[in-house]
């Protein structure tokens, strides 16, 4: 079972931030379709017999290094990722990002640790009781437009709610090997949500077929105390006894 709260403390973060105004849009796919997009040693995780891919737009808020005084605000900008859920052969679960779209070119420095960032023009705005997200990668790349209507808070998240939203490490690939980035933050405050508009070409751009069926949608006001740890090589799988 995926932990609702963080699995570990990140004692020495390399980055602090908030992840705010976040929407989770998830589709199910055949596991073998998603597995074909993963590097060696990562296995796609399944829930109810399916792999799941999420489109998650949000505001990356108050991004700052750990030594910056609390009174000094960091940068805030939109980000959107397409992700799936995986398990390393050593048994540790996490996220695999198929793409990371970002409105701040400074984040492209994270490519050095294998994060697949792409610069674009992104926006997040509230209008009455709806929230709108737009984005287009530079050089006529893939794009998206979402309008979501947040619903009532989810007081008791189901096992699927937690499984689709809570992971405590991300995997990247560089120098021919896998690395993991630990994450710590408070549990997501989730709400139901309804999609008013959904137009996107990100999933096909990363090599997936067009999604079919109705997506599962959640909204969150966000988490404000995100601590990202340093990227580190993955521990190898245990040798068979």
How many whole angstroms does the radius of gyration measure?
A: 17 Å
Number of helices: 3
Helical coverage, percent range: under 10%
Largest β sheet strand count, sense and barrel closure: 13 strands, mixed
CATH level 4 superfamily: Acetoacetate decarboxylase-like
What is the CA–CA distance across the termini? 25 Å
Total number of distinct structural domains = 1
In the predicted model, the low-confidence regions spanning at least 5 consecutive residues are: none
Strands, total number = 13
Assembly classification: single chain
- Structural class call reads mainly beta
The CATH first-level class comes to Mainly Beta
Mean pLDDT, nearest integer? 93
Q: Please provide the ordered H/E string of secondary-structure elements.
A: EHEEEEEEEHEEEHEE
Overall spatial form = globular
Strand content: over 45%
CATH architecture assignment: Beta Barrel
What name is given to the CATH topology?
A: Acetoacetate decarboxylase-like
In a few lines, what is going on in this structure?
By secondary structure, the chain is mainly beta.
Write structural notes for this entry.
The chain has helices spanning 31-35, 159-165, 202-205; strands spanning 15-29, 42-44, 51-64, 75-88, 93-102, 117-127, 130-137, 143-153, 169-174, 177-184, 190-200, 216-228, 232-233. With 241 residues, the chain is mainly beta. The chain has one domain: Acetoacetate decarboxylase-like. It starts with 14 loop residues before the first strand and ends in an 8-residue tail after the last strand. The model has no long low-confidence stretch (mean pLDDT 93). A hairpin with a 2-residue loop joins β9 (169-174) and β10 (177-184).
